[in-house]
C-alpha cells in the first residue's frame, strides 16, 4: 500500500496521468513533474481530473520534492539513466514504470507481447481472440498500444485477462510483472539512442520473462537469432514459431499452410491466402504468434481461427488505403525502423515508389536498401536522415532517389513518379519525431492526401 507515501510521477502524457489517478486511488501523496519547457504547472494541472489532489511541477524540480520522494513512476519516454532519475535512485527512491504500477493492482491473468516489430498487430489480434472467448467486458488491451495499464487495472478480476503490448522502455522498470503467457516476436536493432547498446536493448526485451517459471509459457520466433538463442535459457516453457522451416514442436509454415505440431501430433490450421486477410510474411509470423499465445491462454482453436479469418490490418501497418489512377497506395507509417520497413517492402507485389526518412534513431540502413531487390523503382526521401539514407543507397548501387523538403512536396512527387500498375508505399524506416507528433499523424496525413486524389 502507498497510503501517505511521497510519490513522484515523471512525464505528463497519458501514462503519467494514468499513474497519477491510480496512485491517488492508492492513497499516495503525488507530485506530477514534466521538464518540457513549453509546459507550466497550470497546463499540466489541466490534464488531470477535476478534484485531483496532485501537485504539478514544470521546469525545475524543487529540492524538497527530490529529498522527500520515496517512489518514482517513470513514463515510458523517460530514460532510466538521466541525471534526475540517477539522483532520485541515489537518495534511496524506488524506481518503477507505469506497467509495473498497474500490475500491482492486477487481479486476473496477463498475456504480454514484446518485440521490435509486430507488437501492435499481434496484441490487437490476441485481444480480439480473447474477447471472442471471454466477452469484451472481461478483456483489457493495454500498454504501448495507447491505453495505459493504470487506467484499466482496477477493473480486473480473477476471471479477466489483460493483453499488454509492452515496449523495451516499459520493460526496463518491471519488478513483479508476471504474465502467464509472454511473447518476444523478434529483436532487431532499434532505439539504440535510448538503450545505447544492442546488449542492453536485448536484455530489456528478455525482461518480459523475468518472473516467469516453467508453469508459464513464452512464445518465441525461431527465425530470429536473438529469440532462438534466448529459448535455451528462458525461464518459461518455450513455444517456437517459424516462417522458414518445419519444427519438431511448435507452429510453422509449410508451403501456404500454417501447421501446429505438438506431442508428435500434427494439425493443419489455415491457408495463409484464404484463411487470413493480412498480407506479408511478417503478418504470417504475427498470426502464428497469436495462435500460440491464444492456445496458452486456453482459447479453443476454432474460436482463434474464426477471429483470424476476419481480422483486418492494424491502422498504419501495411494498410491498403486506395487505388487512384491505377496506383495502389499503402500506409506503413508504423514502419519506424529498418527491419519493420523491410517487411513493408516484402509485402509489395508491384513496382513501388517508396517514401523513406525521418528522425535519426542511430539505425543502419544497409539491410533495408538491400531488401529493395528490384521492387523499389523510386526512393523519395524526407527528414533528418535523408542524406544518410541516400549515401547508403548509392553505396549499394541504388540511385533512383529524389529529395523533398516537406511531406506535402513528397506526396505530390510520389504521385508524379508512380505510373499505372505501380504502388506507393509510406514505410519510412525512421521515427516521425521532428516533422510530426507521432507516426499516426504521419499516416493520417498520407491517407487524407491519397483519398483526396482524383
Strand order of the largest sheet: 7-8-6-9-10-11-12-13-14
What is the CA-based Rg, rounded? Answer: 23 Å
Summing up helix and strand content along with how strands pair, one would put the structural category as: alpha/beta
Calculate the terminal CA-CA distance, rounded to whole Å. 60 Å
Count of helices?
A: 17
The largest sheet is: 9 strands, mixed
The dominant shape is globular
Strand content: 15-25%
Overall strand count: 20
Instruction: Report mean pLDDT, rounded to a whole number.
Output: 93
Helix content: 25-40%
Low-confidence stretches: none
Explain the overall architecture.
The chain has 454 residues and is of the alpha/beta class. The chain is built from 17 helices and 20 strands. It has a 9-stranded mixed beta sheet, covered by helices on one side. A 6-stranded mixed beta sheet has the order 15-16-20-17-18-19, with helices on both faces. Strands 3-2-1-4-5 form a 5-stranded parallel beta sheet, sandwiched between helices. 33% of the residues lie in helices and 22% in strands. A hairpin with a 2-residue loop joins strand 12 (250-254) and strand 13 (257-262). The protein is globular and about 65 Å long. The chain starts with 5 loop residues before the first strand and ends with a helix. The protein has helices at residues 14-25, 41-45, 63-68, 83-90, 98-103, 119-134, 168-171, 192-195, 198-206, 225-230, 281-296, 301-310, 338-346, 366-370, 386-395, 407-417, 439-451; strands at 6-10, 29-34, 55-58, 71-74, 94-97, 109-114, 139-143, 161-165, 181-184, 217-221, 237-242, 250-254, 257-262, 265-271, 319-324, 327-331, 352-356, 376-381, 401-403, 423-426. The model has no long low-confidence stretch (mean pLDDT 93).
Amino acid at each position: 500500500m502507498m497510503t501517505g507515501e511521497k510519490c513522484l510521477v515523471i512525464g505528463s502524457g497519458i501514462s503519467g496521468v494514468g499513474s497519477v489517478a491510480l496512485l491517488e486511488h492508492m492513497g499516495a501523496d503525488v507530485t506530477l513533474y514534466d521538464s518540457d519547457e513549453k509546459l507550466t504547472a497550470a497546463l499540466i494541472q489541466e490534464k488531470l481530473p477535476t478534484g485531483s489532489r496532485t501537485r504539478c511541477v514544470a521546469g525545475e524540480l524543487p529540492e524538497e520534492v527530490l529529498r522527500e520522494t520515496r517512489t518514482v513512476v517513470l513514463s515510458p519516454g523517460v530514460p532510466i539513466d538521466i541525471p534526475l532519475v540517477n539522483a532520485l535512485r541515489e537518495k534511496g527512491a524506488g524506481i518503477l514504470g507505469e506497467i509495473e504500477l498497474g500490475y500491482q493492482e492486477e487481479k486476473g491473468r496477463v498475456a504480454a507481447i514484446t518485440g521490435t516489430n509486430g507488437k501492435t498487430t499481434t496484441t490487437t489480434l490476441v485481444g480480439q481472440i480473447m474477447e471472442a472467448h471471454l466477452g469484451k467486458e472481461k478483456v483489457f488491451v493495454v500498454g504501448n498500444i495507447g491505453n495505459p495499464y493504470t487506467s484499466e487495472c482496477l477493473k480486473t478480476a480473477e476471471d479477466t485477462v489483460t493483453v499488454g503490448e509492452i515496449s523495451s522502455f516499459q520493460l526496463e522498470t518491471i519488478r513483479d510483472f508476471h504474465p502467464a503467457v509472454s511473447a518476444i516476436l523478434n529483436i532487431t536493432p532499434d532505439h539504440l539512442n535510448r538503450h545505447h547498446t544492442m546488449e542492453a536493448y536485448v536484455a530489456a526485451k528478455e525482461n518480459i520473462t523475468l518472473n516467469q517459471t516453467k508453469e508459464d509459457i513464452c512464445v518465441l520466433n525461431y527465425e530470429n537469432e536473438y529469440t532462438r538463442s534466448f529459448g535455451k535459457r528462458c525461464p518459461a516453457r518455450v513455444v517456437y514459431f517459424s516462417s522458414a522451416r518445419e519444427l519438431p514442436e511448435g507452429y510453422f509454415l509449410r508451403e501456404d499452410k500454417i501447421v501446429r505440431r505438438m506431442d508428435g501430433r500434427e494439425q493443419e490450421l489455415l491457408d495463409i491466402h484464404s484463411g487470413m486477410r493480412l498480407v506479408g510474411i511478417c503478418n504470417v509470423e504475427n498470426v502464428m504468434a497469436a495462435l500460440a499465445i491464444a492456445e496458452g491462454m486456453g482459447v479453443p482453436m476454432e474460436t482463434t481461427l474464426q477471429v483470424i479469418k476476419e481480422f483486418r490490418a492494424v491502422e498504419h501497418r501495411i494498410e491498403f488505403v486506395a487505388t487512384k489512377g491505377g496506383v495502389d497506395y499503402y500506409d506503413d507509417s508504423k514502419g519506424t525502423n529498418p527491419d519493420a520497413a523491410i517487411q513493408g517492402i516484402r509485402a509489395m507485389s508491384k513496382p513501388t515508389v517508396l517514401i523513406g526518412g525521418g528522425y535519426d534513431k542511430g539505425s543502419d540502413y544497409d539491410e533495408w536498401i538491400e531488401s529493395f531487390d528490384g521492387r523499389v523503382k523510386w526512393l523519395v526521401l524526407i527528414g533528418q536522415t535523408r542524406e544518410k539514407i541516400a549515401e547508403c543507397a548509392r553505396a549499394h548501387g541504388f540511385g533512383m532517389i529524389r529529395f523533398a523538403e516537406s511531406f506535402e512536396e513528397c506526396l505530390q512527387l510520389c504521385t508524379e513518379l508512380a505510373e499505372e500498375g505501380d504502388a506507393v508505399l509510406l514505410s519510412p524506416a525512421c521515427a516521425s519525431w521532428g516533422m510530426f507528433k507521432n507516426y499516426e499523424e504521419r499516416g493520417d496525413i498520407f491517407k487524407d492526401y491519397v483519398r483526396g486524389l482524383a
